[in-house]
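From the thread on structure requests for the teaching lab: each student submitted one protein with a one-line request. Submission from student K.M.:

"Model DUF418 domain-containing protein from Streptomyces reniochalinae, tokens only."
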Amino acid sequence: MLKPRSDGGGRRRAAAFVRATGAPVAAATSAQARRIRDVDALRGFALLGILLVNAQTMAGPYEGQGASGTVEERIAAWLVTALVSSKFYLLFAFLFGYSFTLQARSAERESAAFAGRMLRRLVCLWCLGLAHAVLLFPGDILMTYAVLGLVLFAMRGVAPRTAARAAVVLVVCLGVLLLGKGMLTLGTTSPGAGAAADTATAVADYRGAPASVVHANLRQWRDLLAGDLLYMPHILAAFLVGLAAGKRRVLAEFDRYRGLARRLVVYGLPTGLVGGAVTAMCRNGPLDARWSGVGAAVGVFAAPVLAAAYGCGLLLLLRTRHGRRAAEALAAAGRVALTNYLTQSLVMALVFTGYGLALYGRVGLVPVLAGCLVLCAGQLALSAWLVRRFRYGPLEWVLRTVTRGRGT
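Reply posted by the TA:
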């Protein structure tokens, strides 16, 4: 186990980082409570969207159905692409960047070495992600977060404005790259071209013994790796926006930013919805598969706009009289978000793979999405029970223990 530096260097760097945020170490109690509730409520909200997307991969090869699916399934897949895909993992990434500043302030309050804490935290996240990808879900995001967390740590000293500008550059470069690739594909591919996905092997493996499930996960993980690397700039951009927002204490002092939040909802929601609809038209029809690259490029630009509108809209709603109860329920789920995220994969693995019922590819997309809503409702209730009795969820406790190091 790595030990914090004893010469105070890490503490001095943490103090310098906190001073760079422009915020005092000891914030007002009410503001700190509000901040924590908002961060956790946004995490709880993001859990539902992540579940709806991940379920499509874990429950069956729906991506390859195309026109062969029922009308209801095609509509459901179209709506998930337009409204959900790529939006909620960006919201989670934003919160990761924001929480980075909270970790720095916590280290400063406790006179602890921030570098040692953060390195242990990222290593623990990477190990949990590795186990998750191999055993449960090859589309794991924790390992990507851990790797990019090192980049975020290296950039921790940048000014908020610089971080935001860097995020814009990353998004624009990725979007232009994908648009060029998509236009090239569109211009060089014949209409109707594109082989159907070979899903027989995946179906057999996921319905087979546990060893075959692990084998299928490893194979899919290898196939997904190129896409994960390609979209790393998208996630890093969200990290940097979260870092900038944390330095500005946007969620701690949200009332100061209500006007900006309303503008993001008013202008961002319709813009993001149009972009999401275009992405869905390219990926799920009526446009053919040649347009998928163009749709991916549009999604790179539209997803952050819609994610920001969702987040701001939720925070505004939670401040209404009827939104306070929802805020408490979402915040409870968000406090144990890591436990909930991995539990979602465990439940779906038990239902859809050879670990349990082996229903992979046997259930339509609409019932799968309905089941996701039931699972999310159950997690909201269980999370509320858990946080009333324990300070941390089980995996949150593990991550916290590793972060702080033995004997701290």
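TA comment: Residues 28-190+200-404 form one domain. Residues 278 and 295 are 7 Å apart (CA to CA).
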